[in-house]
Predict the structure.
Amino acid sequence: MTTNPRSLTPRPIARALTAALALAVLAALSLSSAAGARTAAARTGASRAAASRAGASRTAGSRTGASPAHSASSFLTGIGDEHPQMFANPLYQQLHTRIVRYIAPYDAAVHPWFLQQAYAWISAAEADHQQVLVAFYHSEYTPTKLPSVAVYQHDVQKFIRYFPNVHQYQAYDEANRGNVYRSFSSPSASLDARYYQALLRVCHGCNVVGLDVLDQADIYPTLEYIKEFKREIYRLKTIMPSIWGLHNYSDVNRFETWRTREISRAMGGQVWLTETGGIVKFGGAFPNYHGSGLARAARALKLMFAIARANPRIKRLYVYDWTGGNANVRFDAGLMDAHERPRPGYQVVCRELHAAHCNVRLSDH
C-alpha cells in the first residue's frame, strides 16, 4: 500500500475536504476490493498471456494483468482520470482494464491538499490491482513559474517515497503544450530533458516514460521539439528513452492518422498513447450542440483503436478521461457525463474490450 500522508497538517483549503476524501477512499477500497476478489483468479492467467503478447517493457510484463479480451490485441488499454470514485463504478469494473494514468503537480508532495488527492486516487487504484502511471505537471500554486531542476528533483523524490508501489512515471505531461498567459507555462525541450534526467536519478528501478507530447494540428513544431529533446539527452549523456508518450487528439478527432505515424517514427522505440480519446466538447473547434459532440466522440474513439492496431510501435493506450463535465466546462472528453451516466463513447470502449454488459442506457449529455 501507499504511505499515508494524513499525518501531515493540511493547508486551510484542504481541511474542509479531508473527511470527504477519506470517505471516498474507503468507499472505493470497499467496493473495488470486493470486485477484485471475485475476479482475481480469472485475471491472473489472462494477464500473463496478454503481457507476453503485448511485448511490453520489463515492468509491464511482470506487473500488468489483462482480461482475455486484451490478449487478442498488441496493446493494453487503460483509463486516465483524477477522480477516485471511478474505481467503484460497476461500469468501470466490468472493463477489467489493468492500467491507469494519473496527473499530479510536480510539487504535490510538498502541498498537503494535493498529496491527499494523490493518496485517495492511487490508494483506490492499488486496491483494484491497477498498475499506475503518474505524469507530473505544473504546480497549481505557481503554474506560470517553472521549477529549477533542483527543486523539481526534490519535490518528485518526496512524491516517489510516498508511493513505493508506483514504478512508472512521466517527467512532464504535454511538455510541448506551450505557455498560456496567466494560466500555465511549459518547459523547453532542453529543460524537459533535464527534468527527465532528474526523475531517472531519484526513481531507481522505475520505468520512466520519455518525452510526453501533444500532436497538435500542425505537427512540425512537435517534431522539432522531439529533435531538441534528443539532442539534449545526448549532450547530457543520459539514457535515451525506450518508451515515449504521445497524446494524439488531433489525429483521432480530425479522423486522420498521419500525425501519429510521423511522430511515432520520429520518437523511435515503443510508444504509449498516454492520453487520447474522443472529444465531446473543446472550445469552438469541437462543439457539443444539442448532443452532437457525443456521436462525434464515439466515432473518434473507434478510430483511436484502429490507429493503435495499425501501428506496431504502440503498446499502450490510455483513454482520457472517465469523468465528463457539465455544459460550462471548456474541455470534455468523458466516457461518463457529469452525473456518472454512460455516454456513447463508453459503449465503444466497452465493446472493444468485450465486456459483458455494453448495452446500457446512454446519456444524451
Summary: The longest strand covers residues 99-105. The chain has one domain: 5-352. The mean pLDDT is 84. DSSP finds eleven helices and eleven strands in the chain.
